[in-house]
From TrEMBL, chain A:
One of the record's GO molecular function terms: sarcosine oxidase activity
Record-level GO cellular component terms: cytoplasm
Cofactors required: FAD; FMN
Name this protein carries in UniProt: Sarcosine oxidase subunit beta
Organism: Flavimaricola marinus
Catalytic activity: sarcosine + O2 + H2O = formaldehyde + glycine + H2O2; sarcosine + (6S)-5,6,7,8-tetrahydrofolate + O2 = (6R)-5,10-methylene-5,6,7,8-tetrahydrofolate + glycine + H2O2
Domain Rhodanese intervals: 35-79
EC number, as in UniProt: 1.5.3.24
Record bears the keyword Oxidoreductase: yes
Keywords: Cytoplasm, FAD, Flavoprotein, FMN, Nucleotide-binding, Oxidoreductase
Family designation: Belongs to the SoxB family.
SUPFAM superfamilies: FAD-linked reductases, C-terminal domain, FAD/NAD(P)-binding domain
Automatic annotation (TrEMBL), chain B:
Pfam families: SoxD (PF04267)
GO terms (BP aspect): tetrahydrofolate metabolic process
Protein name per the record: Sarcosine oxidase, delta subunit family
An example Gene Ontology molecular-function term: sarcosine oxidase activity
């Protein structure tokens, strides 16, 4: 598979689209690799890509029990942003957004990254103060934030209910570089890039055991036979606890279901990502025209990949409260993704007590925008043994030591609060 | 999803607030050390399948231990959390 280009699209159009070939190989697993990555989702694929590209480590396999990108990277609401407040998170998501901005040229793949601007609404003086602080933190990090007053929001989002009795709109924090991307294309682009650099992408290959001898990882057992490896990385958000249990670990993770919804395709009406925190509601419009929106987790541990009705009602209530016009749209479908919820709402990229075994988990409901930065930092950790600076605070032991807990919401570092 | 309250019978999920995994009943001793407390507070089995967890029935103020399945959302039954904790204490497992 060569490079994609506009010229190639035209050329293939002229000769009946007969020259396209598969975007990656379908190799048999080898007996041994330098690095085995468990999990062929966004984070696993980007880790493989950056291992090859940044560190020249190409004797790598990505093992995926289903198909590439079939998990949360294919089930999210596609939002890309860098509007975090706390040190540790702020520099990480800032780095990730910079990678996003160069991603299409880097991958030679159209991920439809659209920096349409993200607006977080506020509804009181106190909330305005909090967003001023957040905006300043973002600017200090080198990212962009603009405080909009009520009229400023109205220019961007004239269709909102500004005079709602309970939540009148006082203004919003605009993050112009925030936006969306085509989620599947991100997985496919990284997969293609990794494959081109020699990484073996092995699908329908479920890891059933992790081989550890004398505290050192030796490889994995899989549904397609044993595979030896010098290093193994568990990058399986949504199933982190099950995979870590194969290495005798219990993680600070609870799995919860987060629902999302999409309407029938409509003409362009919502040009931004709009976040209505008081209703735990956010919305954007896909390039196909569907309104894509969601709310909070269902708040009970679940692996069902589908939610219950009370949260659906809550999300629809919030939508109608914020933008009554949405009542005319018909919801086509809804689904649920399984979130690795951590006690402080922040992720983990770290070594484990087993030598050569690494863990990347705990992305809560924010994993999609982290895909480039997470892969970059995880690859750095695997290749060099040193934490990559922007992700250096994502430690597994922070709940034990109390150092570096990143509780972005300020609700306390315990389960079921984020 | 409907959940059986041990006091009121089967009620809508809306009447309940989810609490935590039922291991919350298995509290370490005050002097058990930071590793034991970290494990208790933060680390989880987080099973995909049968689980036992704590639900609070907002309507009557009861904490219940609910047997259910995290994959299918099937709910099999429940008991009073108070009884479950007393049972643990009687079995010598309770460390509180």
């Amino acid at each position: 598979m060569g490079r994609f280009s506009g010229l190639k699209v035209i050329w293939e159009g002229l000769r009946g689209q007969t020259g396209w070939t598969p975007m990656w190989r379908d190799p048999e697993p080898k007996a041994e690799y330098d690095v085995v990555i468990i999990g062929g989702g966004g984070h696993g694929l980007s880790t493989a890509y950056y291992l090859a590209k940044e560190h020249g480590i190409t004797n790598v396999a990505v093992l995926e029990k289903g198909y590439l990108g079939g998990g949360n990277v294919g089930r999210n609401t596609t939002i890309v942003r860098a509007n975090y407040f706390l040190p540790g998170n702020s520099e990480f998501y800032s780095h990730s957004l910079k990678l996003w901005e160069g991603l299409e040229a880097d991958l030679n793949y159209n991920v439809m990254h659209s920096q349409r601007g993200l607006i977080n609404l506020f509804h009181s003086d106190g909330q305005r103060d909090a967003f001023v602080r957040r905006g300043n933190a973002m600017v200090n990090q080198g990212d962009d934030a603009i405080l909009l007053d009520r009229d400023g929001v109205r220019k961007h989002l004239p269709y909102l209910d500004f005079d709602n009795v309970r939540f009148p709109i006082y203004g919003g924090l605009l993050h112009p570089r925030g936006g969306t991307a085509r989620h599947d294309a991100v997985a496919w682009g990284y997969a293609r890039g990794a494959d081109q650099r020699g990484v073996d992408l092995i699908q329908n290959c479920e890891v059933t055991g992790i081989d550890i001898e004398g505290g050192v990882v030796r490889g994995v057992q899989t549904s397609r036979g044993p595979i030896r490896a010098k290093k193994v990385a568990m990058i399986v958000a949504g199933r982190s606890s099950q995979v870590a249990a194969m290495a005798g670990m219990r993680l600070p993770i609870e799995s919860h279901v987060l629902q999302a919804f999409v309407t029938e395709g409509l003409k362009p009406v919502i040009n931004h990502v709009v976040s209505f925190g008081m209703g735990h509601f956010y919305i954007s419009q896909s390039d196909k025209g569907g309104l894509v929106f969601g709310g909070d987790i269902d708040f009970y541990s679940s692996y069902a990949a589908r939610g219950n009705l009370p949260m659906k009602e809550h999300v629809m209530d919030a939508a109608m409260t914020l933008m009554p016009m949405i009542g005319k749209a018909k919801v086509l479908r809804s689904w649920g993704g399984i979130m690795d919820m951590s006690p402080d709402g922040s992720p983990t990229i770290d070594k484990t007590p087993t030598e050569g075994l690494f863990v990347n988990c705990g992305w809560n409901y924010g994993g999609f925008k982290a895909v480039p930065g997470s892969g970059f930092s995880t690859a750095h950790l695997i290749a060099t043994g040193q934490h990559h600076a922007p992700a250096a605070k994502f430690r597994l032991d922070r709940f034990l030591t109390g150092r570096g807990i990143m509780d972005e919401e300020g609700t306390g570092a315990q389960h079921n609060l984020h | 999803m409907r959940i059986p309250c041990p006091v009121c019978g089967v009620r809508d999920r809306r009447e309940f607030t989810w609490g935590a995994d039922a291991l919350a009943l298995d509290r370490p001793a005050v002097d058990a050390g930071e590793v034991a407390w970290d494990d208790y507070l933060h680390n989880r089995e987080n099973p995909a399948g049968p689980t036992r967890d704590l639900w609070y029935h907002d309507a009557c103020g009861t904490w219940a231990v609910v047997d259910r399945d995290t994959v299918t959302h099937a709910v099999h039954g429940s008991s009073l959390a108070e009884t479950a904790r007393a049972g643990k204490a009687a079995a010598g497992k309770g460390r509180a």
